[in-house]
Protein: Ribulose-phosphate 3-epimerase
Amino acid sequence: MEYRLCPSILSADFNRLGEQIQTLEKAGVEWLHIDVMDGDFVPSISFGMPVIRSIRKESKMFFDVHLMVSAPERYIQDFVDCGADSITVHAEACEDLERAIELIRDAGVKVGVSIKPATPVNDISHLLEDVDMVLIMTVQPGFGGQKYLPECTEKIVELKELIDREELDVDIQVDGGINDETMEIVMKAGANLLVAGSYVFSGDLETNVYSIQKKMDKIKSEID
Structure:
């Protein structure tokens, strides 16, 4: 299983976005998490296709695009055309989740499905063989800098057990409140893709990345 740090540019300094993306890439980061918010499905508004298209020109990183928008089916192809390497949609936002998954697959990128803290894992369990990744939100979606919700740990464990039981190749991504303490909790519960915002971008970016990746390697060695 590949363990990856997925920095969320929602916490980046937008005045230095290009520079910070280059710093991440030079530090060995391979996945970039991009939260797209519409002010409807979640209260906040972030950025859309023009920003992704612009930074795509400057980076070879894997663009992990998280659509926190209502009726995301309308935008899947547009974001793929802008440079997304994966598209994650919310189960709660789709009128027809199976159709959304099909659209993402047909667009030729990796398929992700996300659930909010209150949404049971069982709501998406029948679709696990059709996706590449499940994103468990460990805070209420829409804002950065929130604290990890401890009740989400059991959801990670439950999802991991389902994936292992069915012998599926599905990544478990977590997003929200990741820090030194919660990183160990979620990894040992079964998550392998860790989205982190302020944990990465607060302070010296390059130093933070090296430090976090070193800690992840240590936890991984304990799991293995």
